[in-house]
Write a structure and sequence with these properties.
Chain lengths: 121, 107, 756, 161, 499, 100, 139
């Protein structure tokens, strides 16, 4: 399954790169969400997969019973998901604000910080 | 015996889920599809939860299953109501047997 | 420009003006007191371990060469500072001027005294900076700023080469101490790095000394106030290059490269500059070009190793400094007094400015090389020196003769005509004699020129011989300075010089157009500078337009292309490919999950409906959550689903005010698709390769064993979050807080509204 | 409401007495508590509709589940048959239920019953817009809903003295 | 010991919380100043300890390495923390005047101090994932600071900044995942130790390249620097000062750390690429600056150019070269932050940072002229200012290593740097003001003058101190380089003697 | 292989098919509410999926996932529906403005 | 938003969500849950509130500015970490106190780790709400 997931991650990355390269920055946001998922899955799958055994310690035991899933990547992914959400929220608000102040979502038309006529010679 | 009952419930639930999927895909307009999603879907999940409750037969777990169903019953109709209302305001007219085409694409 | 605009308010500058003079005088006195010891062949060394970690010391060495320079610098410095006190009296920026000029003098002293390559370089650059500030004293005009930049840029460029040369030299010889390096002259000359070192050092010295083809900045530097020109561009800064060549002479001279480079460059500069000088009508400009001529001559001599040449070098060095500084100051007096420096306008000043005329006359005679002035001795030695050249002596002698004749003519133009010719043209101001503070300099310097001419021994023992000793290691080959050495070749050449000089003087007005044509036909370095700057700016702008076009998509494309090269390229270059993956354990459930996620992702990428894209994102989120469920990560699954929900909520809110995705036409980008596909493939391959390596689970095992007994938690994931790796979590919640604050600020910042 | 708390309190006490926490003990505790409360009602002087209400609730739940299952089959039939047999329509139904909880319960339960879906309640809370899948006779559907589901809900949640 | 390391990390967050909760009054900004003063004290204490004991490490939460998160300070980390604290203090004083009450109410001080916290965390952590977290802390607070004010150019620049940095972030995170998948550990010392045993060393290089790109974006190297010139000229001056000084340097720090400690197995490949990157970064950056006509844009492109020098030191990987990189880092932070602060004063007095629209500062604001002259000519590499030594050490290292081309490039770029610095000098200071009277500092209130000029003067004084007395700094940089090039002590200390 | 195992395998397959069908509806739309309904249907299916996962792994932890989703999942539906409704309101308002 | 059904549903759901989120927070150390999940769930309660009844009502109900909640949460989490200093332990070393400790059970735990998790909860809760509210108020 790890291998299959690796392929899925490839698909996620490819689609998100395609989205991020689009003219409309809203697509960048969509790509961002996808690629964050891809990155999280990379971490998750790097810790290898175990089906049906969450890393919980049952009552009365001192440690998990049997082979349980790798807890560390789970914690990392959880962290990364929340960070990713923060970044996403900010990016979305930024694009939103861009539209309301610059009047466009097309990045080609966003030329305030680096104006087109800038030719100092 | 309990195992058998649980298995039957689980099977029925899963079947309901797939029926709901079919309904969402096949039914002619958004209102009828909502019928399938809201009710049949909820029913499917509810049956599986019932199966799980029977299977585990532990009070704490049963409570959780009951809560799942309770939450679903509480929230699913509200969601459906919102979608239905929005559809109406979008001007989507309900399908009727007289017309056989999908309403116009919106958005 | 007229830098004496403030002459109407002849306020003194008080202490601010006098302290620098005092400093200079003290230093001059101190060096003078050391002169006897040096003349006896001692050299004084002072070491301060400045940056021992880099082998760089502030070591100073006082030998004949550096003493000669030090005396010229501090002595002329004192006079120039005194002079400028009046010249710039009451100028609002006088304090800065005095500070810069004093700093310059001190830096120059440091330069000639330093015995450590890097120490020398530090002073070298300090002279560059201070001269930049001095040349840019007239910063109100574009011309003044241009000149300052030009000087800085050209000498700065040379300095960088010099630095490289010094570093290379230091590493090659195992020391940055000049005296140690020069002591191993043979090793240096035989070193494989000799040639690069030589080229780099000469690049520094040629630019500093304005040797052809770097000469063009010097005349422009005349934008500086006249005292600055007198000091920097006669006696000191431009001579820094000459000094350095002289300093390196014992270690590097004697090779063919050294000889030819210096000889040709020096000779060419000398002639070329003299011709240019004759063209000028601005007295200061004319003097500036003669300075170039002198520098060329000095360079020419340093190309040699004969005693004549060295003696000639040492003598001419002093001669030139004395008369040139004097003449510059005279021109300053004229300018100060009349408001103009135009040779064709000036005339008849001899009666109103007798003292100035006297100083000018003495200096000009020295410059023209009349006996009994030191200039004459200098010239004789020059001819003797040039005739001692090993190859093509007559060619170079002819060149020198021409240059000297031109100089003769210019001496007349600068020092005779303004005072004695009649023009009848009204001057901008009614001329008057300059105050004593301004006359002291030119007069003293001019008199010294005559004094040394009459008593050449004085100069010989105190400065020339010690200098020659620094250059050749001994004074055995030093030639005697005398006014009369019998009828010899140099004397004949002197006579020829005078004859030619008089001719040129009389004909110079008629010659000017011809010279002008000649000069116009030759490469225009000064205009070339503008072209260079323009070209540089254009190139920079072009490059920047290409690299930084301001279009986000290109940035992202370049970034991803780099990513592809970095990952894919390295995979191929370093042969990191995975073997074929094992897909035997795949179940229907797995495939269904993968299809679900991929379908969602592809739908997101390809749909032109915002809502479809958003819903498809939701599908991916759900699919990923299902992976977390299947592979035993309930906490992560819950988080994923919650976050996914909030993502949809936020987007749904935001979309209310955003337009549809494609307002004009569909979004179809094959090139992007290729790049995206390639990156996706690379990521998959890397991941597959990583998954082939066995995973070490000791961290996880530790967490499993300690989670309950030591951290009292049964949910290992949560224990990692709040205990084992609490610091991560802390940072993460900081991220969340800040993301919220930032988003909030962004929303509130443009539409100010009351905070609820 | 106080009575419900009391009932739960009795159930908890029951479990503590038996020192168990099982499915059975919870149910039996609630049941026992209910009966005890009913017994002590005159004693405590509680004039409460609680006892009746419990029965109404049970009726509501039972009837709802019955409706759910029966009409599900109708929908299923429509999904599986190639031709859509349904004849959907949107209908306005007058609403008698007044309280917030009542409205929520009625609309939710109607939605959960296959074949009917609450779309919206008017601002004045007087009408409910419904989507009915088999609306050959919309009036009849409304009538049965009013007499069935709405009645049961009003009985269960609203104080109608 | 553990709190010596933890305190500099904790303080900025504490400051942020207090400053935020007090954001409606004057207390907020003074919390910020005081907090950063204490931070400076704490970081000096840290430095003293490090100088005394070499590498020091502390295990957070009491969980021993590699299981918990280790904070670790070697010479490089310690000096970066100190310089961060200095910059932070300077900027927080400057901000007393530069930041208006509206920005304060929106949480400027919290954003700023958490940014500092992130920077300190990045310098002190010995754990790769933790480094990622601090990078995120920095990144997101920089987002907030960048757009605070909400001008059109800020939004536009912000979009470029945010998008490109997010790509880097994702790449970083993925790289961590992959590295974990190969080594099973997150502790950098532990990774360094175990990475040598990985069978597929080519794969290690691939992952190394991923990190190079990820940190390359953060460090703004060619061809990944686009976001920097697009954004750095847009925010408040105190913000661009701290960005210019600190942010890209964290990327450089991470590159140095990773490519000396962890990815030192394929130097012939990775560091050769770094060398190319260094050269191209220097040249493209300096040319970009030459094409600009705005003070802050010029300075922004110069950041890029000078990052090239630091990368050059890393790429050459000789003791002298790495020492040069370390020295350059320290020098550059002080100088660059200061130049941006000065640009702010120039704008306040002359009305703009566009060189066409300003002038006359030399005549009427001589103090500002001096204060600009020192860092500007230091940046241009004139002796005896700090920039000269930085450049000297690097060029010397290149020549020693026979890297003729890179040495030549470094020198040439130095020349072009002079060109831009004098351009600012000539246009903003020498040239008369194009319209109306020459600007003077007396236009500012005495209080504003104090707030704005004291930090500038302090930083300029540091430039002078480093310039005139470089020996302790060079010695330190050499020691730091020795530690970096032989990470044994680092690894042993982190892992508690289990190297 | 017990009966339950068989049922579970079958159940997973059925749930996936259900989700897949909803996915198709989501892709083809055609109206916004259609897509919302499809997404809603998928969310509810995940609750079922969690139940199956819990039984298969004998671990009630997955029921917690279901619990959270059952409670929170409809929020997305509500937000999207509200979006649709408001978007219409906006468009109408805009048109009115243009007409006057 | 003038949907009666949603408004009424929200009355119940909001409280339910907050209650449930606290439950997830408290038990998070031993079962799925914790500060993040709790905070996320808790915030959805008020997000729903804002969607149904408008942000003004939601803010009134919350009483404190969400940013302040978030920042206070950060402060609590930090203090929970610094607390270890009083016992000479490293930053973020968990400090535990067990009430009613007996031979076979540790009793009811009170720990800095719990406070840390509460901080996390507040941060997530406050942050999400400040973004969502501000965004809502833009349209
Ligand atoms: Na290593
Ligand atoms: Na290694």
């Amino acid at each position: 399954m790890e291998a299959l997931l690796a392929i899925t991650i490839g698909v996620l990355v490819a689609t998100s790169v395609y989205l991020m390269l689009a003219r409309n920055v809203l697509r960048f946001i969509f790509g961002l969400v996808l690629i964050s998922n891809a990155a999280n899955l990379i971490i998750f799958v790097s810790g290898r997969l175990t089906a049906g055994a969450p890393p919980l310690i049952p009552e009365g035991a001192d440690g998990p019973v049997g082979d349980v899933a790798n807890a560390l990547p789970q914690a990392l992914v959880l962290t990364a998901i929340v960070i990713g959400f923060g970044l996403f929220a900010f990016a979305l608000v930024l694009m939103f604000r861009a539209y309301t102040t610059l009047g466009t979502l097309y990045s080609d038309d966003m030329r305030i910080a680096e104006p087109r006529t800038e030719d100092t010679t | 015996m309990i195992d058998l009952a649980a298995a039957v419930l689980v099977f029925l639930g899963a079947a309901m889920t797939v029926v709901a999927g079919i309904g969402v895909l096949r039914l002619p307009d958004v209102f009828t599809r909502m019928h399938a999603a809201t009710k049949v879907g909820t029913l499917g999940s509810g049956l599986i939860m019932a199966g799980a409750a029977l299977h585990f037969a532990d009070p704490a777990i049963v409570l959780r299953c009951v809560l799942v169903v309770f939450f679903l019953l509480l929230t699913a109709p509200i969601g459906a109501h919102m979608v239905g209302r929005a559809s109406l305001r979008l001007g989507i007219t309900p399908w009727s047997p007289q017309q056989d085409t999908d309403p116009q694409k919106n958005e | 420009m007229n830098d004496t605009a403030t002459a109407t308010q002849p306020k003194g500058n008080g202490l601010v003006g006098l302290i620098p003079v005092g400093i200079a005088l003290l230093l001059f006195g101190w060096f003078l007191s050391l002169a006897p010891a040096v003349a006896e062949g001692q050299s004084l060394r002072l070491v301060w371990d400045w940056v021992p970690s880099l082998g760089i010391a502030m070591s100073f060495l006082l030998d004949g060469l550096s003493l000669t320079f030090a005396l010229l610098i501090s002595g002329i410095g004192a006079l120039v500072l005194l002079y400028s006190n009046t010249y710039l009296a009451g100028h609002p920026q006088f304090a800065r001027f005095a500070l810069f000029l004093t700093s310059f003098m001190l830096a120059m002293l440091g330069l000639v005294l330093a015995d450590n390559l890097i120490g020398l370089f530090v002073f070298w650059e300090l002279t560059t900076i201070t001269s930049y500030l001095l040349i840019g004293f007239g910063h109100d005009t574009a011309k003044g700023r241009r000149s300052a930049l030009q000087a800085l840029f050209v000498t700065g460029a040379g300095a960088l080469a010099l630095l490289a040369g010094f570093i290379l030299l230091g590493f090659s010889m195992g020391s940055f101490e000049l005296s140690e390096i020069l002591a191993q002259a043979d090793a240096l000359k035989a070193h494989e790095m000799y040639l690069p070192i030589l080229i780099l050092i000469l690049a520094g010295t040629f630019t500093k000394s304005a040797q052809f083809p770097f000469h063009f900045w010097l005349p422009n530097a005349m934008a500086a106030p006249t005292p600055v020109s007198a000091f920097l561009h006669s006696a000191t800064m431009v001579k820094a290059g000459v000094y350095l060549m002289a300093r390196m002479h014992p270690g590097m001279a004697g090779t063919d490269v050294w000889f030819w480079t210096l000889t040709i460059a020096g000779a060419f500069t000398a002639v070329f500059a003299s011709i240019l000088a004759l063209r000028q009508t601005d007295l200061k400009q004319a003097l500036a070009y003669t300075t170039l001529m002198a520098l060329g001559t000095l360079t020419l001599f340093l190309g040699q190793t004969s005693g004549y040449a060295m003696t000639a070098f040492a003598t001419f060095l002093v001669v030139h400094s004395l008369y040139k500084a004097s003449l510059f100051l005279v021109v300053g007096c004229i300018d100060h007094s009349t408001g103009t420096r135009e040779a064709d306008v000036l005339g008849g000043l001899g009666r109103v400015m007798p003292v100035t005329a006297f100083a000018a006359g003495l200096a000009a005679l020295s410059m023209a090389g009349f006996p009994p002035f030191l200039g004459f001795i200098g010239k004789e030695l020059k001819y003797a020196g040039i005739l001692a050249i090993g190859s093509e002596p007559f060619l170079f002698a002819a060149a020198l003769l021409l240059a000297n004749a031109l100089m003769f003519a210019i001496a007349g133009i600068v020092a005779l005509r303004p005072f004695w010719q009649r023009t009848g043209i009204a001057l901008p101001r009614k001329p008057h004699e300059a105050p004593w503070t301004m006359l002291a300099g030119p007069v003293i310097l001019a008199i010294l020129g005559a004094l040394f001419g009459v008593y050449p021994d004085l100069l010989q023992t105190s400065l020339v011989d010690p200098t020659v000793k620094s250059l050749l290691g001994s004074i055995e080959d030093s030639k005697e300075l005398k006014l009369w050495a019998g009828v010899n070749m140099p004397l004949i050449m002197s006579i020829a010089t005078v004859a030619l000089g008089i001719t040129l003087y009389l004909a110079h007005k008629r010659l000017r157009p011809a010279l002008g044509r000649l000069v116009d036909a030759s490469p225009q370095f000064d205009k070339g500078w503008d072209k260079f700057l323009l070209g540089l700016k254009r190139f920079a702008a072009w490059q920047t337009r290409i690299i930084q076009p301001g279009i986000l998509r290109r940035y992202i494309f370049a970034t991803f292309a780099t990513v592809l090269v970095a990952i894919g390229g390295t995979m191929i270059a370093r042969q990191a490919m995975p073997t074929l993956p094992d897909l035997s354990d795949v179940t229907f459930q797995n495939i269904a999950l993968v299809v679900l996620i991929s379908a969602g992702a592809i739908l997101t990428a390809l749909t032109s409906s915002r809502i479809a894209a958003m819903a498809a994102l939701g599908v991916v989120g759900i699919g990923v959550a299902m992976i977390f469920i299947v592979f035993s990560a309930p906490d992560v699954a819950i988080t994923q689903l919650l976050v996914e929900t909030l993502v949809v909520v936020l987007v749904a809110v935001a979309l209310l005010r955003l337009p549809v995705l494609d307002e004009n036409g569909r979004d179809h980008r094959p090139l992007d698709a290729i790049l995206a596909g390639a990156i996706g493939l690379s990521v998959t391959l890397v991941l597959l390769a990583v998954l082939e390596t066995p995973l070490d689970l000791r961290l996880t095992e530790y967490f499993e064993v300690t989670s309950w007994p030591e951290a009292f938690g049964r949910n290992i994931v949560n224990v990692i979050l709040v205990d084992f790796r609490a610091l991560d979590t802390f940072g993460e919640i900081a991220v969340v807080v800040i993301a919220a604050l930032s988003a909030y600020a962004l929303l509130r910042t443009t539409h100010p509204r009351k905070d609820p | 409401m106080n009575t419900l708390v009391a009932n739960i309190f009795f159930a908890v006490a029951w479990m503590i007495l038996f020192n168990t926490f099982t499915w059975l003990s919870v149910l039996s505790g609630l049941a026992v508590g209910y009966f005890v409360l009913m017994l002590i009602q005159p004693l405590a002087g509680v004039k409460s509709t609680y006892f009746k209400r419990v029965w109404y609730w049970i009726r509501l739940l039972v009837m709802f589940n019955y409706e759910l299952i029966v009409s599900s089959i109708e929908v299923l039939w429509d999904i599986f048959t190639p031709k859509h047999r349904s004849n959907p329509a949107i209908v306005d139904m007058p609403l008698d239920v007044k309280t917030d909880a009542g409205i929520l319960l009625v609309t939710n339960l109607i939605s959960l019953t296959p074949g009917t879906l609450s779309i919206d309640v008017s601002e004045d809370r007087k009408t409910l817009k419904l989507h009915i899948m088999f609306a050959d006779d919309p009036e009849a559907v409304c009538r049965s809903l009013k007499q069935g589901m709405e009645r049961w809900v009003i009985d269960a949640v609203e104080d109608r003295e | 010991m553990t709190w010596t390391l933890a305190t500099p990390l904790v303080l900025p967050f504490l400051t942020a919380v207090l400053a935020f909760l007090a954001r409606y009054g004057a207390a907020g900004r003074w919390f910020s100043v005081a907090g950063n003063a204490v931070l400076l004290a704490a970081s000096i204490l840290l430095m003293v300890r490090v100088l005394d004991q070499g590498v020091i490490a502390a295990q957070m939460g009491g969980w021993s390495a590699p299981f918990g998160i280790t904070l670790v300070a070697d010479y490089l980390s310690a000096v970066m923390v100190v310089i961060t604290a200095i910059t932070a203090l300077a900027v927080s004083v400057y901000a007393l005047t530069d930041i208006d009450a509206r920005k304060e109410r929106l949480g400027y001080h919290a954003l700023f101090n958490i940014l500092i916290g992130g920077v300190v965390g990045a310098f002190l952590t010995g754990d790769l994932f933790n480094l990622y977290v601090w990078f995120e802390v920095m990144l997101i607070s920089s987002f907030g600071l960048l757009i605070l004010g909400g001008n059109k150019d800020q939004i536009d620049g912000g979009i470029k900044y945010v998008t490109l940095n997010l790509i880097s972030t994702i790449l970083f995170l993925s790289g961590i995942g992959l590295l974990y998948g190969m080594t099973g550990t997150l502790n950098m010392a532990d990774i360094a130790r175990t990475l040598d045993t990985v069978e597929n060393q080519g794969l290690v290089t691939v992952v190394a390249m991923m990190f190079m790109v990820a940190f390359g974006v953060k460090a703004a190297v060619f061809p990944l620097f686009f976001w920097l010139p697009a954004a750095y000229h847009t925010p408040a001056f105190s913000v661009s000062a701290v960005f210019a000084g600190l942010l890209t340097k964290v990327g450089v720090y991470a590159l140095i750390r990773m490519f000396t400690l962890v990815f030192d197995g394929d130097v012939a490949f990775t560091h050769q690429i770094l060398l190319w990157v260094a050269g191209l970064t220097m040249v493209t950056g300096v040319l970009g600056a030459a094409a600009q006509n705005d003070m802050r844009k010029i300075l922004s492109f110069h950041i890029v150019s000078q990052i090239g020098y630091m990368i050059m030191g890393l790429a050459l990987l000789t003791p002298l070269a790495v020492a040069g990189a370390v020295f350059y880092l320290v020098h550059h932070i002080v100088v660059k932050a200061n130049l941006f602060l000065i640009a702010g004063v120039a704008e306040r007095t002359a009305g703009s940072t566009n060189l066409d629209r300003i002038g006359g500062l030399y005549k009427s604001a001589p103090l500002l002229a001096i204060l600009f002259f020192i860092p500007a000519f230091s940046l241009a590499g004139f002796p005896p200012l700090s920039g000269f030594w930085a450049k000297y050490v690097l060029v010397a290292a290149a020549i020693e290593d026979q890297g003729w081309i890179i040495a030549a490039v470094a020198l040439l770029v130095g020349l072009l740097t002079i060109f831009s610095m004098t351009k600012i000098w000539a246009e903003a200071f020498w040239k008369p003001h194009p319209e109306g009277a020459d600007p003077a500092l007396s236009q500012l209130t005495p209080q504003a003058r104090r707030h704005l000029l004291i930090p500038i003067a302090g930083l300029a004084a540091m430039t002078l101190v480093i310039g005139f007395s470089p020996d302790p700094f060079v010695t330190f940089a050499k020691d730091a380089a020795a530690q970096l090039l032989d990470p044994t002590a680092y690894i042993t200390t982190v892992l508690g003697g289990k190297a | 292989m017990t009966l339950m195992d068989t049922v579970l395998t079958l159940g997973f397959a059925l749930v996936f098919i259900g989700v897949g069908l909803a996915l198709i509806r989501l892709a083809i739309g055609p109206t916004l509410p259609d897509r919302v309904v499809a997404l809603d249907q998928m969310t509810v299916s995940i609750v079922a999926f969690c139940g199956l996962a819990a039984i298969r792994s004998q671990d009630a932890a997955f029921l917690d996932v279901a619990l959270v989703l059952a409670l929170v999942g409809f929020l997305a539906t509500v937000a999207l529906a509200r979006f649709a409704e408001r978007a219409v309101g906006r468009r109408k308002a805009q048109e009115e403005e243009e007409n006057t | 938003m003038n949907s009666i059904i949603l408004r009424v549903g929200t009355q119940y759901l909001c409280g339910l969500l907050v209650l449930f989120s606290l439950y997830m927070l408290i038990r998070g150390h031993n079962e799925p849950g914790g500060g993040f999940i709790g905070g996320l769930i808790g915030s959805t309660g008020f997000v729903l509130f804002a969607l149904a009844c408008g942000t003004a009502d939601a803010r009134n109900a919350l009483k404190v500015m969400p940013q302040n909640i978030a920042m206070a949460g950060l402060g609590i989490a930090l203090l929970a970490g610094i607390f270890a200093a009083f016992f000479g332990d490293a930053l973020f070393t968990g400090q535990w106190l067990f009430i009613n400790e007996t031979a076979d059970s540790k009793g009811i735990p009170i720990s800095t780790v719990l406070f840390f998790d509460i901080g996390v909860y507040l941060v997530v809760f406050g942050s999400i709400l400040s973004i969502v509210f501000a965004m809502e108020e833009e349209i």
